[in-house]
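Predict the 3D structure for this chain.
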Amino acid sequence: MRWSALRNNKGQVTPFLMLLLGVLLLAIVATMLIGEAAYNKIRLSNVADGALISSASGYSRSLNQLRQIKLAMELNHFAMQMTLLFVPRGGIGLPDNSYRGCSTCGGWVIPLWCGKGCPFTYPSFTQAYIRAGQVFEQAEDIAKNMAKDLRSGLIDGVFSGALTDEPKPFLEAEVSRDASSGRVIGFDFDSYAIRESRSTLILRAFKAADYDGWYLNNTLSYYYSKHKEKALSLIDNQGKPIDPLNYIATMVPPSVFPAPDGSGTEAYLTMTMHGVPTAVTVEAVPKILIYIWGKCAGWPTPVCIPLPGIIPNKYSSLRINVQADEGDGYHFGMKVAKSVPYKVIFFERQLETVHKNKVWIRGGLSQGWEPKLEEYDYAD
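Done. Predicted structure below.
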C-alpha cells in the first residue's frame, strides 16, 4: 500500500513551478520597469544638459561680444587721446597765415591744433567721438536680449524637445471611413503633418498671454496625457487645446497632481530655474581726454603760454551689469522633473524622474567667458 500511495501522489511540483513562475514574472516586470526608468533618466538628462549647455554657450558668446566692444571703446579712447597729444604742433612762433584759425576757440587756442581749428572741427577726432557712441549703442542692443534669449532657450529646450512625449492622435476629419461599415480606410497624412501639436500651441499661447514677461517665470509645469483617448479629450475637433492656459501653470510644484484645474491628465513635465539672469544691462564709463591749451598774444609773431585742458569722453569704456533672482548671474542651473504612467502586463505605476544641473560662466573681461558644468547645490 505504501508503494501504491507514493505512485498516486501527483502534482507535488506544481506549487514550486507556480512560485518560480511568479518570481520570473516579477523579475521580468522589474527589469522592464528599471529599463524604462533608466531610459527616461538618460533622455531627461541629455535634453536638460543639452538645453543648459547650448543656452549657456550663447550667453557666453554675447558676453564675449560685449568684451570686444569694451576693448574697441577703450582703444578708441586711447586713439583720441594720442590724437590730441601727438599731432604735428603749430601755432607757437608760426607766421600769420598759420596762426589764423586759433581764434575759433574764442581766444584760447590749442597749440596742437592751431591753424586747424579746435579738436571738434578736426574730422578724425569728431568721427572717433561719434563712433564711440555708436559702438555703445551696439552693446545696448546685444545686452537687452541676453537674459531673454538665455531663459527662453532653456524653456524651449525642455518643453519643445523630446521630453514632452504626448501622443498626437488623428482627428476624425483626418480619417477616411467606409460609408456602409464605418471601417477606417485611409488617413489624411498631409493635414496631420502640418497640424501643430497640443504642446506647441499651448506654449505659444502662454508666451502670447504675457509677451514681455513670460520668460521671467522660474517654475513652469506642463500637464498632459499619454493615452490616445485621454489626449483626444484635451483637444477640440480642430486639434486645438481646450482652454490652453489651464494646462501650463506657473509657480506650481509637481506635487499638485493631476493638473491644477482637475482635468485628470496623467503626466507632467516641470522645470525650476535657479540663479538664471533676469536682465543684463551695460553702462558707459566716462573718462577725460587731456590736451594743451595756449593763450596766444602778440602780432605778427604770437607768443603762446601752454595750459592744460580736458574734454569729457562719455563713451570711453563700458560696464556690464547682470541681475538675477539669486546669486551673481554667472552661476545658474535648473531642476527638471517628469512623471509618466507606465504599465507592464498587470502592473501599472507612475514613473518619476528628476535631473538637476548647474553651469558656471567662468572668465572675465580680460580673458573672455566660457561655460563649465558644476555640481548642483541649490536647496529645492
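The CA atoms of residues 294 and 306 lie 4 Å apart.
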